[in-house]
Amino acid sequence: CLVIGGILLLMAYGTKKYLVLASTDHRVIIRCGIFNQEVLQLRYRQIESVDILNTLTGNIFGYSSIIITGTGRMQLMIPFVQDAITFRDDLTQKLLESEEPLEHKSAAMGT
Questions:
Q1: pLDDT tens across 47-105, in order?
Q2: pTM of the predicted model, to two decimals?
């Protein structure tokens, strides 16, 4: 039981250490993985919501999981994110900034 707990702890540490989250002017970049590194780039228009999942152990050790829901049925869960609330708030702000104002859309349509 102690060996399994140690392995899970090492996996969590490795996931946290090798996770890169970045939000640029036009997209979110997520790089994760130790042996098989995966890079995912999502344009802001593909993102519908950004949520945070807190667990008891996450609250104790200071991490949360971020859940990004995209267009269609895409849902991406990013575990072991330190300071997830700041990342979510920053990403939400950039999502709001990337949307065009409704007045501008109406003027472009000629109404």
A1: 988 999 998 888 888 889 999 998 888 888 888 888 889 989 998 888 888 876 655 55
A2: 0.71
**Cα-based distances in Å from 77 to 20, 68, 74, 106:** 14, 6, 10, 36
Counts for the chain of helices (H) and strands (E), in that order: 4, 6
Describe the chain by its helix, strand, coil percentages, rounded to 5.
Answer: 45, 35, 20
39 in Cβ contact with 31 (< 8 Å): yes
CA separation, residue 53 to residues 56, 64, 79 (Å)? 10, 6, 9
Spell out the SS3 assignment of 54-93. CCHHHHHHCEEEEEEEECCCCEEEEEEEECHHHHHHHHHH
End-to-end CA distance of the chain: 67
- Cα separation, 57 vs 8, whole angstroms: 13
Dig out the tokens for 105 from the structure: 């859309």
